[in-house]
């Protein structure tokens, strides 16, 4: 297989895995809800007032707590595990085909140098 084919296949696989194993997870629940309005465009004019009376700039607010992060990561790990082990299952193949069109419209993936530079520092 030539390098162009390898990259094309890797890009297609990355997109469908992101769609099925990351996007359609508990992440959707975290994404749901009201988005604050910003007049500045950078959210510097948005604040959260908490139960202790603190006024926290939106850019400093943690939008996901530890329990939500743990649940999200477990959901993603389970889906990636299922994807790898059950890739040949006809039901999973049908799901992949159903979502492939939407995933194909996403931006072209790029190599993330942070993943390959770890441990070399």
Descriptive notes:
2% of the residues are buried. With 121 residues, this protein is mainly alpha-helical. Strands 1-2 form a two-stranded antiparallel sheet. The chain has one domain. 55% of the residues lie in helices and 5% in strands. The radius of gyration is 19 Å and the shape is elongated. It contains five helices and two strands.
What is the helix content?
40-55%
Number of domains: 1
The low-confidence runs, each spanning 5 or more residues with pLDDT under 50, are none
Number of extended strands? 2
Order of helices and strands: HHEEHHH
Q: Please, how many helices? A: 5
- What is the topology, as strand order, of the major beta sheet? 1-2
**Largest pleated sheet:** 2 strands, antiparallel
What is the oligomeric state here?
A: single chain
Cα radius of gyration in angstroms? 19 Å
Distance between the termini: 33 Å
Instruction: Provide the residue-averaged pLDDT.
Output: 92
Structural class: mainly alpha
Percent in strands: under 5%
Judging from the principal axes of the Cα atoms, what is the shape?
Answer: elongated
Quick recap:
The protein has 121 residues and is mainly alpha-helical.
Primary descriptors:
5 helices, 5% strand, 121 residues
Topology overview:
Blueprint (H helix, E strand, L loop, with lengths): L2 H21 L3 H5 L15 E3 L5 E3 L8 H20 L4 H15 L8 H5 L4
Helix pairs in contact: 1-3, 1-4
